Amino acid sequence: MADCEAKLYPNCDPDVWLRSCEEEVTEPVEGVITGELPAWLRGSLLRNGPGSLKVGTMQYQHLFDSAALLHRFAIYGGGVTYQCRFLRSETQRRNRAANRIVVAEFGTRAAPDPCHTIFDRVSALFKPSEVLSDNAMISVYPFGDEMYAFTEGPVIHRIDPVTLDTCERKNLTQCVAIINHTSHPHVMPNDEVAVVIVDNENTSRDIIVQRRRKGLQRIAETHRSYDALQYPLIFLHGEDGYHFNIKQIHPKNGIETNKKVTSKEFYAYRLMIRDNEVYNHILNTRRLFQQFLVDMYAKIEAERMLYIRLNQKKLRTEEYIHLRDAIVNDGNIDDIGTMVILPSSYIGSPRHMHEYTQDAMTYVRKYGRPDLFITFTCNSSWPEIKEQLKYGQTSMDRHDIIARVFRQNK
């Protein structure tokens, strides 16, 4: 076994990865330097990774499970100092309070939590993001002048880049419906466009227009004139955008059907690259194209959320097992409130992630615990991406091509 590991990882000492750190280094410690550092080199290097492998008498069974440990290397005047602090996550607090592993991790099963009552377990069914581990031990990512510790889950932690104190815990599910960040980010040196929308029943993205004689008029985002009014540089001639009354056309006989076109189908049609199309100016507006994409995607998600909210009976949400069990066990339906349940077909919803978890556990039951954790990322310099770019464009101007090529190679 040792010979096999040496051949697979000739430059890796497994003892380094499997060691357990039990003490923090709160005050900077001078490091011993081999060689010489240039005097002009100065700054801080922040790292995040596995720390303590033990909780009481229990031990984590996988490297990805150990308590997050933050590291800071401060370089100044030809010298280097080092310090480290444990991330003060809710998972660490619960484990230390119980003196055992009570929060399940990637490869470690949790023990029963003596501080967790039956009511806590029932209420946790409605807040799955609060039950999952928030042990953010994968990376550190900057947002403006703030630093955050990341993991694959929806909870991130703001940390002090100097003292490594844990300053704030943020659950992103309270802000956005879908968590689409990565814990292995690749920071690009450009200014991309993004949108953050806090969804509630009163959220409105309509346009208010001042008419010449009749005062103000509200233009809903599903109005046929919304796109032209919001993006006059793209729709120079005031072309109609998406609205609810667009009917699908039968592809063979060209006759209009009774089925309506969804916003997703409409904008996918507008953005499609066709061989017989001479010029699609929408694809050549660079930063404005990016803004148009994220804005229309927000419209698509808003339409889906509205349909789910208005069709809870059609989706048979009253049959969902967690909701039914909570009503039977608690006996007071008024405590649950008016909840909109997202179906498993909604990507990123709790039920969708629960299905993924069940699939993963099925593989583990049949084949055993995984040995490798493989991620697949996209390289914007792939030749099949560059071949589709127009003159003067970069890959950052055409996220639609990047998404399609990544989907094709996935």
UniProtKB/TrEMBL annotation:
InterPro entries, A to Z: Carotenoid_Oase, Helitron_helicase-like
Binding site for Fe cation: 184
One MF term in the entry's GO annotations: oxidoreductase activity, acting on single donors with incorporation of molecular oxygen, incorporation of two atoms of oxygen
Domain Helitron helicase-like, chain residue ranges per copy: 266-408
Keyword RNA-binding attached: no
Cofactor(s) listed in the protein's UniProt record: Fe(2+)
Cofactor note: Binds 1 Fe(2+) ion per subunit.
Keywords recorded for this protein, A-Z: Iron, Metal-binding
Family designation: Belongs to the carotenoid oxygenase family.
Protein name listed in UniProt: Carotenoid isomerooxygenase
Species, as recorded: Eumeta variegata
